[in-house]
Design brief:
The protein has helices at 15-25, 40-58, 75-79, 93-106, 122-125, 160-172, 189-205, 211-229, 232-238, 243-251, 270-284, 289-310, 313-336, 362-379, 384-388, 463-476, and strands at residues 7-11, 30-34, 69-71, 84-87, 112-115, 135-139, 149-154, 176-179, 342-343, 347-348, 391-402, 411-421, 425-434, 440-452, 457-458. The protein has 512 residues and is of the alpha/beta class. The chain folds into 3 domains: 7-187, 3-Layer(aba) Sandwich (Rossmann fold); 198-286, N-(1-d-carboxylethyl)-l-norvaline Dehydrogenase, domain 2 (Orthogonal Bundle); 337-476, Roll (Thiol Ester Dehydrase, Chain A), CATH 3.10.129.10. Helix 1 (15-25) packs across helix 2 and helix 2 (40-58) packs parallel to helix 12. The longest helix is centred in the middle third of the chain and has 24 residues, at 313-336. The protein is globular.
Length: 512
Amino acid sequence: MAELPRTVALLGGGVIGGGWAARFLLNGIDVRLYDPGPEAARTVDAVLANARRALRRLTLAPLPPEGALTWAGSPEEAVRGAQFVQESAPEREDVKCALLAVASRAAGPEVVVASSTSGLLPSRLQAGMARPERFLVGHPFNPVYLLPLVELVPGERTAPETLERAGALYRALGMRPLTVRREVEAFLADRLLEALWREALWLVADDVATVEEVDDAIRFGAGLRWAAMGTFLTYRIGGGEGGMRHFLRQFGPALQLPWSRLTDVPELTEALAEKLAAQSDAQAAGRSAHELERLRDDCLVSVLQALRAHGEGAGAVLAEYERSLMRRGTAGDAEAGIAAPLLAPVAEVPPEWLDYNGHAHESRYLQLFGDATDALLRVIGVDAAYLAGGASYYTVETCLSHLGQARAGDRVQVATHLLGHDAKRLHLFHSLHDVADGRPLATAEQMLLHVDTRRERAAPAAPAVLERVARVAAAHANLPRPEQAGRVGARGGTPMRSGRPMPLRGRITPPR
């Protein structure tokens, strides 16, 4: 796993620059951002709000503490001392060249400088830079904080090491770098999008379809396939057992038919522009840009999560990113030491957690308590490597008590108390409270059983894990015992007291 930089410099704070700010900040990286535009701060704040909401919905993996955002008064101030530079200025070659030339002379000599340009040639952008070998294009897609693709395009003077370093960083941020083999205008993805865009414009200009009908043709049809398989694998399946060869024999001749108008571009007259705008307004049905952005993000989260379950496409990238967050969280917990009680990160209740009564659904309480249990497991060394070795803790009993109501916007936190333990069991007590006033909201008492996952039966935990459990138990020994404690433990015998292991009675097979 690549080591993440402490500080990055961003040059440009529009929608793309704001998306990069969110991608870096929510990965715990400090950002220094330069943008002289009067609306830059407002744009970045709006993008950050969307990103925080989307990431909370995207993954249950522990996100690191958010990085700090600092606004710089000049490009030199932004890049000085930064370990990585991402430029996202307006798509004008003269503006970008001037900005990159200044930044390259102020940045450290080893610092990689990337441009978010969607089509300008990197060889031209790097021509006036100091040390142009450390420059490349790193072209993202909107929203940058959710879509994993980033196209890497080297210029004539870009060093191979620059590609490697940039790719490693983007992967650590949960992205999927795609190196473009040849330097070409608009790179790879945008050239494909441009072809579709031209044909879509002709269909509307010729009154074959409305803008909504064009979008429906994509979102109800090929778009669903593309999310998982792209273009060529989809067509291979269309060839049946004969694969791509059969598909080309059957449908290849149709390529000679004048079905598309890709070699021609409709003139964007006032009449056509007005038609497009009016139909687009009707399609939006009164929804604001902000509402549509959130709808887009919610749908993307759902698609990414569905693909993750199958390990395909962007879902595989999300799964690897979550594993990296777990590894980083384990390291962070070890450095933080053992607290009494253990405190989970503060969480804000999002509106989508509410049920028809207007407060958080009970499943969300369990989610928060489950996250707190995971945090304890990381502290005692139950990380990805431990799980891969065939051992884990399973929750076998939970007693949930509701004491108050959590509503949208409430900031809540879970405190975890290790009540007891032995070689095979952990007895936990979680309490959820409102951060603002300390009001108790819920408690959960849990019994966890250590399992040999290959043999599917209870087994003692590894000595190193048990040693850490003992350290937690010692730190928690003087905590007052919660009044509600004592409701679990029948599955394995009498409830345990901290520091006094109790024997298990017979074999306990974990649930499947």
